[in-house]
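Trying the structure run again after the queue cleared.
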Amino acid sequence: MKKIVFLTGAGMSVESGFKTFRGNDGLWENFPVEKVASHEGWLMNPDFVTEFYNGLRTKLFDAQPNDGHKLIKELEKYYDVTVVTQNVDDLHERAGSKNVIHLHGELAKVCSSNEPYDEKYIKTLTKENPTIEPGTKAGDGSLLRPFIVFFGEAVPMMEPAAREAQKADIFVIIGTSLNVYPAAGLVAYAPEGAPIYLIDPENVSQSYRNVTHIKKGASEGMKELFNILVKQE
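Done. Tokens:
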């Protein structure tokens, strides 16, 4: 079975009603990034940061996977599919995708401030209980913080994502400007000769080989790509 690796960005979730972080009317438009999405911001005012992500999480649970998410899952019938996402939402999982790597963390989770990736202290929140009280502590005694990779922090899931990209027979990019590093560098790990599909309604600056640009949004673009890929099988 051939392997497809998807790299998805903020544009993947726009049709689900979940705003992108960047762009006009983005999630951070009214909040300085350094205040809500940096390690320094967290240390300065953890209560404010906790409440900010509580609000985002509530919006996330109101969003639903779109046809693009669902078609990625549908491709699992024909291909070995791995999704590498820059998004912090769980819409790929809710659409049923089995293999999802989150580069920038997961909004639906909170974790230890001392050891964010220690699974013993990672807690998944739900639509019924989407918030945590500021000051709540993890099992190791540190404050529970959003399970988000803040600006300036390492991206621990880059290595597993790069390993998956190296095994790709087909590489697909959806809804990302390819300007966010280190994630954008993943394309370079795709084997030489592997076809690359780019789904984005906008012109995207890129210099990669073998790129087929489908100038549509996530859902319409995935419908076109699905037909292409399933006909190949």
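The chain has a mean pLDDT of 89. Worth checking whether this holds up in the mutant runs.
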